[in-house]
Amino acid sequence: MNKTLSFIVSTFLLTGCASTSSMKDSSSNIEPDIDRSSLPSGIFTYYDDPSRYYLPVEYFLIGQFVTQNDCLLFETNAELYTPVLPAKHTKYTIGDAQITVGNEAYKIGETGDISAHPIEREYIRNFITEGPSQCLLDQFMKIEVRGVKI
Questions:
Q1: What is the pLDDT of residues 88-125, one digit of tens each?
Q2: Which residue, 53, 59, 74, 105, shows the most beta carbons closer than 10 Å to its own?
Q3: pLDDT range class, residue 42, cuts 50, 70, 90
Q4: Helix count and strand count (H, E) for the chain
Q5: What distance in Å separates the CA atoms of residue 102 and residue 100, rounded to the nearest whole number?
Q6: Is 119 exposed, middle or buried (CB count within 10 Å of its CB: 0-12, 13-18, 19+)?
Q7: CA distances from 91 to 1, 96, 111, 143, 150 (A)
Q8: 82 has which bridge partners?
Q9: For residue 100, what are the β-bridge partners?
Q10: What is the DSSP letter of 89?
C-alpha cells in the first residue's frame, strides 16, 4: 500500500513539474531583451526561450551559405534550405559578403562546418525577423551559436 501511494505521489509530482515547465506565454512574439535596431535584416531569425531544456548535443554540417535570387540560403549535400538563425547572435544585412553567428564568421559561398540541423517549420514558433517570402523553401535549417545552446 505504501509503495503504491508513493508511486502515485511521485508520478503526480513528476508529471506536474513536466507540464508546468513547458507553459509559456505565447502572446509575445519578441522577447523584451531584444533590441530591434540591432537585428539582422532580410533573413529569417528565431528566439529560443533560455528557460527551455535542451539536450547537450551539437550538430555540425559541412555546407555553405549561398545567395540566390536575393535570398540567403544554406546548401549542404546539394540541397538548399532556408536558414533560420538566432536573432540576438546574428549579424547580416542583405548584400553582405559574410554572416556572423555568435563569434563565427562565415563567408557567403565558402564551404565550412557549421553548427546546424534540419528542422520542420512547425517547430519554429514565430520568426523574429523575416526575409522575402520567395526565400521560404520547403526545408529549413536551424543555425545555432557554436558551443552554446541559446
A1: 889 988 888 999 998 899 999 999 999 999 998 888 87
A2: 74
A3: confident
A4: 1, 10
A5: 6
A6: middle
A7: 60, 10, 19, 13, 16
A8: 140
A9: 91, 105
A10: G
